[in-house]
Design goal:
Mean pLDDT: 87
Helix content: over 70%
Structural class: mainly alpha
Shape: flat
Radius of gyration: 33 Å
Number of domains: 2
Order of helices and strands: HHH
């Protein structure tokens, strides 16, 4: 060790840290752009595939309706029956809600509203998994 020359500490040149940080930031921006481009391309491909599948299904339905017009009549009658029952259910629900509102007081309504608000907040907490319930989550 005595024959070895003395070592000198070499320090980086001026601005080295700034240049390295700039290159890291540029690299991260390039990765973010690349991820955004890949995500956009994937989104466009999936949207195109779904559009093609929906278009193919519509073509199948149109050819089925063109070949057998009675199918269209059956579909319309089924939709009419479904709309009838939906209207009947909505009417019954309207009557039930009107009856409940007519027979409860303001305090009871406030308690029910607070219960719904509490259940909504609990559901939001469970659904988001967020430890805080703020407007940003």
């Amino acid at each position: 060790m005595q024959n070895e020359p003395r070592f000198t500490l070499v320090s980086p040149s001026a601005g080295f840290t700034a240049r390295v940080m700039t290159r890291i930031a540029e690299h991260e921006r390039a990765q973010a752009r690349r991820r955004a481009l890949i995500g956009s391309a994937l989104l466009v491909v999936v949207a195109g595939a779904l559009l093609a599948l929906v278009g193919a299904q519509i073509v199948v339905w149109l050819t089925a309706f063109a070949e057998r017009p009675e199918v269209l009549e059956l579909v319309v009658s089924a939709l009419a029956a479904a709309l009838f029952w939906l209207g009947a259910f909505a009417g019954a629900l309207w009557i039930a809600v009107g009856t409940i509102l007519a027979n409860i007081g303001e305090v009871t309504m406030l308690v029910y509203a607070l219960g719904v608000l509490t259940l909504t907040m609990v559901w939001l907490r469970v659904a988001t998994g967020s430890p805080t319930l703020s407007l940003t989550t």
